[in-house]
Amino acid sequence: MEPSEHGESVKTENAPLSSLNGTLRLLVIEDDPAYSRLLCIRLEKIQKPHLSATAVHSLTAAVERLEREPFDAALLDLTLPDSSGLDSFRRLHVRFPQVPVIVLSGFDDEALALECVRSGAQEYLVKGRFEPWMLARLIVFSIERHRQQTKLVALSITDELTGLYNRRGFMELAGHQLKVAERSERELLLFFGDLDSFKSINDQFGHAAGDQALIRTAQIFKETFRASDLIARIGGDEFTVLALEASQAHAGLLMARLRENLKKFNERQVLPFELSLSVGSTCFYPKQSTRLDILLNQADQALYEEKERKAKTDQPEPGSGVI
Length: 323
What we know:
Blueprint: E1 23-29, H1 33-44, E2 50-56, H2 59-68, E3 73-77, E4 79-80, E5 83-84, H3 86-95, E6 101-105, H4 110-119, E7 123-126, H5 132-157, H6 167-184, E8 188-195, H7 198-205, H8 207-224, E9 230-235, E10 238-243, H9 251-267, E11 277-284, H10 292-313
Parallel strand pairs: 1-2, 1-3, 3-6, 6-7
Antiparallel strand pairs: 4-5, 8-10, 8-11, 9-10
C-alpha cells in the first residue's frame, strides 16, 4: 500500500547509533521527494519499533550522509539520478558493507530481485505492495540478520591471534578492491612483510613469546596504516597490507612511518627482545590489471631481496624495505 498524505514533516535531526531496543535510524534513498516524505512519515508513526527516517534523493547524497552519520539500515530505490539498477545497490554495499540494505523498487522483476539478494541485499520489495508496519518488521529482521551474518563472516575471515584478516579474508577483500580500483583508475600499494628471526624467538623465549611478537607486530601495522586499509596475517609470521588510498608516491612515507613506529615500540622495551621486520612493496597500476597473486609474489620478491642485502651488509640501505 502506498503511503498516504499527512501534515507532519520528516525528521532530519541527528540521533545516536541505535539498538534494536531503542530508536532505529533509517536512511531512505529515493529520487521522488514526495514518496520518500510520505514513507518516512508513515514509518515514524509506528510505535514499535521506534523509527527515525532521513531522506536523500541521490546515491551521492547517500554516500555523503553515511560517511558523516551512523544509520542502522538503508532503504534503497534502484532508480536514482546518478545511478540505476543493480549498480546502485552494489556501489552502496561495497562502500558501506556494515549497513543492511532493503531494496524498494518500482519493478516487479524476480530476476533482478534474486540478483540483489545474491549480491547482499537483505530484502527486495516492490513499491505499492507492502504496508508500513510490514516494512518496519522487515527492517528489524534485516538488521538482526545482518548482524548475525557479519559475526559469521568475521569469524571465517579473521585471524584469531591478532584480530587481523586471515589469508582467506585478505584474498577475498583485496581481490574485490583491485576490481574497484581498476574501474576507478586508482593506484594501490601492497606491502608484504615478515618478522626477522621468528624461529629464534620461539626457540629462545618460547611459543607464548612468539605469539606476543605476532600480536605486537599486528598492533604496529594497525598504528601505521589507516583503518580502511586491508591488513592481514596470511600465515606464520607473514603480514600483508593493501593500502587503499595510497600510490607509488606514498611508498617511502609509509615505510618510514612503519620504521618509526617499530623503533618507538622497541624503545619501550615491552618484550624481552627487539622486533625486527623486513618489508617489500609493489604498486597496483589499474591499466596493467595485475592479478593479486602476482602482486603478492612481486612484494614477496622485494622482501627477500632486502633480506639478502641486509644479510650481506648487516645494515639496510637508505629507503629500503628492511626495518
